[in-house]
Amino acid sequence: MSDFENLHGMIIFAKVVETLSYTEAAKALGLAKSSVSKEISALEVRLGARLLQRTTRRIQVTEVGMTYYHYCYRILHEVKSADLFIRQFHEEPTGSLRVVAPVTFGCQCIVPALNHFVASNIHVSVDLDLTDRPVNLEDDGFDIAIAITRELPEHRQYRPLMDIAWGLYAAPDYLKNIGTIASPDDLPRHDFILFRGPAHTISLPFRKEKQKKDIEVRSRFRANNSIALLNSAMAQTGIAYLPNYITQEAVARGDLVQILPEWEMDIYKSYVLVKSDNFISPRVRLFIEDLQKALK
């Protein structure tokens, strides 16, 4: 007997249990009452067990029938969930999209994608929370969260966005005054603008082919915001250690120059975390697709 041979009978049997009526089950399923009766009888024969006790007045579910019904119910629930998923997959995005993202990355990279998404989907509203605090996606009520990390996220559902490479940047006029920097070994004598690390020194990583260096440098100015460090670098305060998405426009304008671009430094990865539901709504799915295209 094939496992799939009973599926049709299981659907009919479940409906009979729920209505306790062959007539009502037949109406709900769009079948003849005789077809329902024949299918139940055939199912019982295949199973070798009595599922229903039938009298002229009522239908009674046997003990084995009730246990079997619970299996049928779970299967039908999954079938309905699958149907709902397909219907909603094709629906127009509607409702509120709640997004949480790190402050600077959110302003620089997420907001432009959200602007485009809102303009293209008139029935969707957006609630954006920019914060650098840790977020619990399941408890805080967000649909998606943007995370930046070196390791893979611990969250069950996530999608990759973009790599974030860090580098050293300084204003051209500042570099003219301090002389040539030919290698990482030239760095300790200069002043640095740093986002993280101890107040006075930090070890900067450098990699090129098989070479690896960790250079201790002095931090003259620290801040917990990359835009503040960017502005300080453009004001010729020192050499800033920044992620590349922050500096792209300043480099394109000629306000900043990357130092030692041939050396690789820290590389982080950004991800979009999705609430761990069985179904991803159209608004969430389409925004993630737009975001991945924008940050590709």
TrEMBL record:
Pfam families: HTH_1, LysR_substrate. GO terms for biological process: DNA-templated transcription. InterPro entries: LysR-type_TF_proteobact-type, LysR_HTH_N, LysR_subst-bd, WH-like_DNA-bd_sf, WH_DNA-bd_sf. The keyword DNA-binding applies. Coiled coil: none annotated. One of its GO terms (molecular function) is sequence-specific DNA binding. This is LysR family transcriptional regulator.
